[in-house]
């Protein structure tokens, strides 16, 4: 990592996890394999911010620790990249095991539960699917009917918020906004 940390993928230590490495990596990993409109990639960092924003709107009583979990839901991708869901399904268990170990180390590092409660996982999945719908229809060329079939009906969000979060940012802006939101949520 740029911080100088060496992260063991088979046995990741929370001591080797740094938020700056996460933000830097996620800001440079493209969602949708880079197949999006815009002058810049739509990064996983920007996606994570959108998911957290959707969760905040859909679940206004969610506490800051859980919002931090939502923000970090794709954090393992700073190391392993973002793979489209159909490919993850083909790879299966090995990929999921590595991803789970990374998320556990990240959760430990930031004093979050290693095993996320079912209610939190449900919130993350709901907000993530809504974000995927909006990304698919706004950035990735999906028809609304196709996106609705794949991701379900999205949570309603203020059009101004959607405009802000669905205009691809530079990597530096995505990294800075991710770090800013992390600092706001970290206890």
Automatic annotation (TrEMBL):
This is HD family hydrolase. Keywords: Hydrolase. It comes from Xanthobacter tagetidis. GO terms for molecular function: hydrolase activity. It comes from the Bacteria.
């Amino acid at each position: 990592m740029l911080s100088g940390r060496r992260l063991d993928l088979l046995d990741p230590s929370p001591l080797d996890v740094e938020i700056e490495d996460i933000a830097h990596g996620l800001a440079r990993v493209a969602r949708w394999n880079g197949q999006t409109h815009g002058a810049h990639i739509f990064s996983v960092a920007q996606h994570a911010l959108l998911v957290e924003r959707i969760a905040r709107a859909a679940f206004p009583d969610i506490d800051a620790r859980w919002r931090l979990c939502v923000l970090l839901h794709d954090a393992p991708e700073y190391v392993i990249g973002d793979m489209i869901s159909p490919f993850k399904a083909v790879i299966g268990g090995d990929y999921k095991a590595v991803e789970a170990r990374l998320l556990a180390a990240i959760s430990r590092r930031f004093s979050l539960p290693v095993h996320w409660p079912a209610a939190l996982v449900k919130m993350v999945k709901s907000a993530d699917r809504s974000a995927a719908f909006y990304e698919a229809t706004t950035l990735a060329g999906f028809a609304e009917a196709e996106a609705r079939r794949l991701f379900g009906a999205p949570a309603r969000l203020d059009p101004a918020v959607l405009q802000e979060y669905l205009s691809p940012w530079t990597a530096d802006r995505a990294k800075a906004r991710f770090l800013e939101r992390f600092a706001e949520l970290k206890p």
